[in-house]
Design goal:
Elements lengths: L5 H6 L7 H19 L33 H18 L8 H13 L6 H13 L7
Length: about 140
């Protein structure tokens, strides 16, 4: 039963945001991270023998989109998905938006801004390996 009492919440089962769909996604995440990696699942004890890297669990999955449909169709459908999300609200941030804005700014300027500390560090590596320094 829904509650806004922390004490009551601790007595019951905590469901993720999103109701039954959020719960399904949470189970999927546990299967992909905890179960498949051999790491901890849910509230499993960190001291359990044989658990990989204690409480850290990672799984990497690669999906070849053009194995399921032509790449052009995948790209078009992906764009359509993003357009439909953006049509609902201007305030929604789509992952990758910040990167895309930076990339476009770099391309317009014809250069990439680097912090002085990074330039010094890269020039140190260049010097150590006998490579021409950046600036």
């Amino acid at each position: 039963n829904p509650t806004d009492s922390a004490a009551e919440l601790l007595k019951g089962t905590k469901y993720p945001i999103g109701g039954h769909k959020g719960f399904g996604l949470a189970i999927l995440c546990e299967l992909l991270t905890g179960v498949m990696s051999g790491g901890l699942i849910l509230d499993e004890d960190e001291e359990k023998d044989g658990i990989a890297l204690k409480s850290t669990s990672h799984t990497a999955i690669a999906i070849r989109a053009d194995g399921l449909m032509p790449m052009e169709e995948y790209e078009n459908r992906s764009r359509e998905l993003i357009d439909r999300i953006r049509a609902r609200s201007e305030q929604i941030h789509i992952p990758g938006d910040g990167f895309w804005e930076h990339k476009q700014r770099f391309e317009r300027a014809g250069e990439i801004e680097l912090k002085d500390e990074l330039i010094e560090r890269l020039n140190g590596y260049a010097s150590a390996y006998g490579i021409k320094e950046l600036v």
